[in-house]
Amino acid sequence: xxxxxxxxxxxxxxxxxxxxxxxxxxxxxxxxxxxxxxxxxxxxxxxxxxxxxxxxxxxxxxxxxxxxxxxxxxxxxxxxxxxxxxxxxxxxxxxxxxxxxxxxxxxxxxxxxxxxxxxxxxxxxxxxxxxxxxxxxxxxxxxxxxxxxxxxxxxxxxxxxxxxxxxxxxxxxxxxxxxxxxxxxxxxxxxxxxxxxxxxxxxxxxxxxxxxxxxxxxxxxxx
Length: 223
Description:
The protein is an all-alpha fold. Helices cover 71% and strands 0% of the residues. The protein contains twelve helices and no strands. The protein has helices spanning 15-29, 32-44, 49-58, 60-63, 65-84, 104-116, 123-127, 129-143, 151-164, 168-180, 185-199, 201-221. α9 crosses α12 and α10 (168-180) packs across α12 (201-221). Residues 1-8 have low confidence and may be disordered.
């Protein structure tokens, strides 16, 4: 995979991070042929089976069960094909078990607060409190509770999917989260470059415009 250019001293996206981007994007837009190629490329770039599986499972929270299940089926078929060809893919480790006394609501709330940089609240939460429960307990508690992927990798998957749906408002929100979890401006510009190279110009243009808006807003807030 060609690496996105990086002209600063900050590190560009590594091979795993770059591989996550088209996998999430093609899961979101339902392009099965390109998804299969991206899954194979991810394996070739050193991603484990469990790392890719976690990306595809996470996608259901952002793209819905149909896209996620279809992508998982595509991945299972690809693994069977590769096994028949004598290719042995590294399964990788399972998620670290959570403590027996773990409170999923508390853990999910803490994770959500860390990601967005403040306690979550708003008119949508007030109007549909069950959505707030699903986000805290299931998305940020259960899905983000798996440490097979770190928060930076999960957020790259998220913004890739949101740029490809598209879901512009959520994309801007999660680009902010990307910065909150330590992805740099240079790395997010590299993300846009990978979208352009591997996914499509429309997705890259949307992501690029959203990123510029997020960066400008954060700069204005810090003045």
